[in-house]
Every structure is written in structure tokens, then in C-alpha cells.
Amino acid sequence: VAEPSLWQDGMPTGRVARQFGQAPSASANLADVLERVLEKGVVIAGDIKVNLLDVELLTIKLRLLVASVDKAREIGIDWWERDPSLSSRASGDLADENRRLRDRVAELEGSGTAHGESPDASATMAVDTSGGPRRAPAEPERRQGTGR
Amino acid sequence: MSAGAPWASYTYAVARPFDPAQIAQVQGVDGSEVHLVSYQDIVAVVSSLSVAEFDEAAIRAKLATPEALEAVARAHHAVVEAVAARSVTLPFRLATIHHGGERVIEVLRQGYRRFCAALDRLAGCVEVGVKVYADLEALAATDPARKAGPAAPSTPSSPGRDYLRRRMEQRRSRDEAWRLALAAADRTTTTLAKLALDQRCHRPQDPRLSGTRGENVLNMAYLVDAADVQGFALVAGSLAALPGMRIEVTGPWAPYSFSLPDDGGDSSGRDDRWESK
Predict the structure, then answer these.
(1) Residue A14: its chain B contacts at CB < 8 A?
(2) Which of A15, A25, A48, A52 to mutate to test the interface with B (most CBs of B within 10 A)?
(3) Cβ-based contacts of B236 with chain A (< 8 Å)
(4) CB of B180 within 8 A of CB of B149?
(5) Staple partner for B32: which of A43, A133, B28, B134, CB 3.0–4.6 Å?
(6) What is the C-alpha separation between B107 and B100, in angstroms, rounded?
(7) CA distance linking residue A84 with residue A73, whole number of Å
């Protein structure tokens, strides 16, 4: 992995901060780049429709695959093996899949129903499920940060 | 280039006008040239792409494998960075594609007020990423109870009881490690919130995707005055100074995470407020 930061191991390296455009952007960590170009930034509906669900699913898949398929299976996440994923014809199928996932999540949490009916909300939900393989089920609950 | 031409316009960002010669050498998606589409005092940063290569099926193919997605994502990011180095920039999400320059102008016209408001808000600011990682094993080792070593059993021991005690100690150490990690993350956000103009909380990254060690317990983006970015990074880098904790500061980034005025409780960045219905 290319050097992702100017300040490593909690210590400033003493170098002058990279200014915009002066370093090849290839040096940025892929996870940081994807996080921004896929999930942040202004969303404008284009004339040529890119199925956002597909892209979201690809990043989930990317995360899962990089995270290790076995690990994901191990903790019971294998829906991506069956999803129509990037063939994308059927956002209907994906919506169904996401609905099932939502139900499953709600069931697991034992706390009411997940909300959101739009495909986007479904995508968000699906993305959230990608948190699964990141941590073992036995870990204590963690707070997700304090963004205001 | 007009609507209906066999060209698709891929928009990377909206910015305040600047000399396009400054980004002449920057290549866009698929090695394309990058040019500006102007509307009043804002510009869209755009590549003209062959519709044949950027219709729905083609773009799907371009995003359908990790390698292809990475190529498009990095090209998109390279253009956004180059623009952000020259002008206040509002990055667009990946793969925003319209039927030619006329449609792009229409997007600029429709979103003009909001684009201007966002550009004004972001002028002179950069985004800084701050991630806190915890090595739970190392943290658990700092647990005083564990440091003291296994307590000598005060009662006659049995293998079963020893086993249970060890298990309980392990579990307690791990809980304690989480508590320490989250407390450090809290201190980090409390301190940095005072130094930043705005903040967003991202999902923790999978350490195996980011290629880093430890659990990512905090993944924040801060909007910082460009003049203060060095100081901010120094402070951020000095936080979470516990054995087993590590802080990573990245950037400066174009303000991707701050395209919307506030999170509204949804960090996905999705919103239709940019478009007039």
C-alpha cells in the first residue's frame, strides 16, 4: 500500500505538508479515495444512468473480497454470492434482496423495522451490512463516532 | 458540442473559474482531456467522452471490477485534486454523466444558487482525514489488572475454575481495551472539533482494504481553514498517544465530505437538493 499520510504512527514526519496537486494522487490510499468519490461529493442525476446500487454493491464486494471471502462466509454473510450484483438489470431483485437484508438485520437486532423505501435507502442499508465482516460478533458494542 | 451529439459529458466538479491551461496536462477518465463549461461565475470541470464508450452498459462495465473501478476512481480523484489546487472546488460523485455540454450548462443553471452557496462555504478550506486505530491486544496489555500478572488463586484451584477465571480475565481485558480505545477516540473528536470548521463521521474502514494494522475505531473528516492545516495536523497527530493507539492524518483533500451543508444524520452524502424538480 502506498504511503497514505503525511503523519505516520501518531507523529508528524516533519515534512512539509503535501499541497494539492503536487504529489501524484496515486499515492492516496484506495480506501480513502473510494470512500470519497463514491460516498461523498455532490450527487446529481445524470442523463446516463449509472446504477448507484451496482457501484455500492461493488464496493461492498470489494471490501468483502479484500476482507476475505472465507471470513465473511464464516459469520454468515454470503448474500453477495447470490445477488445479481453487477449485472444490474434488476434493481428490483436488488431491492428485494435489500428488503430481505433489512428484515434480517431488524430481526437480528430485535428492534423494530429498518426504514427507508427508496432504492438509495436500500443501498445505504446494504452498505451498512458490510460492517459485518469487519468485526467479530462477540465484540462489545462500539460507538460509531461523534459527527454532529 | 451540442445536445444530441455523440458525446457524453462526464463532470468531475463545479468550481469558481480558473485558467484551464493550468490543468491542461491532467488526464481525466479513460485518459480523456479535461475542459471547463462555464455558466455565469461558476464552471463545471468536464471530459467529453464518446457515448459509445460511456453509455449505460459501458459505464457499468467500467465500474464492474475492482481494477476498473479503481482506475475510474483515481482518474476522477486526480482531476478533482488538480482543480482544488487552483480554485475552490465542489467535487461531484463518481460517474456523473450528461448528454453533452448543453445539459451540463443546464445543471449549472438549475443548481446555480446552491453551487454558489457551497463554494462560498468551502472557499479557503480543505478537508483533513483523521483516523484512529487501536491495537486491542496491545491495549489490553496496558490494563493494570493484567499487568499485575495472573492473580494467585486464594482458594484451592481446580482446572475448571482456573479456566473460567482466565476466560473472564481475557474478556475483561478486551472490554477494557475497547473502553480505552473509544475514550481516546472521544478525546480526539472533542479536541479537533474545536479546531475545525466542520466535521463528518465516516464509517470505519476495513483494515484489510486500507492495508493498515489495528481496528479503525474512528474515521473522521474535518473541514479546516487552509491556513491552519499544518497546525491542525500537528495537533491531530499528537492525540491518542497511548500504547496500542495510532492516529493517521491524511490530506489535504478537496472537500468531498462537505458538499452538503450538514449531515442531517445521514452520512451517505446522498441528497436531491441539488436538483430542481
Answers:
(1) none
(2) A48
(3) 7
(4) no
(5) B28
(6) 11
(7) 18
**Are the beta carbons of A62 and B209 separated by less than 8 Å?**
yes
Question: Which residues from B are below 8 Å from A53, CB to CB?
Answer: none
Decide if B249 contacts B128 (C-beta within 8 A).
yes
Alpha carbon A114 to chain centroid, angstroms: 18
Strand order in the sheet with B215-225: A11-12, A7-8, B245-253, B125-134, B215-225, B198-201
Residue A45, min C-alpha distance to chain B (Å): 7
What distances in angstroms separate CA B231 from CA A4, A17, B69, B104, B242, one per listed residue?
A: 19, 11, 35, 39, 21
Give the integer Cα–Cα distance in Å for B62 and A3. 26
Nearest CA in chain A to B8: A48
CB contacts < 8 A, A to B, total 258
To the nearest whole Å, the CA of B16 is away from the closest chain A CA by 15
What is the DSSP code (8-state) at residue A29? -
For B212-255, the pLDDT digits (tens) are 678 888 999 999 999 999 899 989 988 866 778 888 899 899 99
pTM over 0.80: no
Q: What is the ipTM of this complex?
A: 0.82
Q: Round to whole Å and give the CA distance between B7 and B81.
A: 24
Alpha-helix runs per DSSP H in A4-142 = 30-39, 52-67, 69-74, 79-82, 91-109, 119-129
* AA letter at B217: V
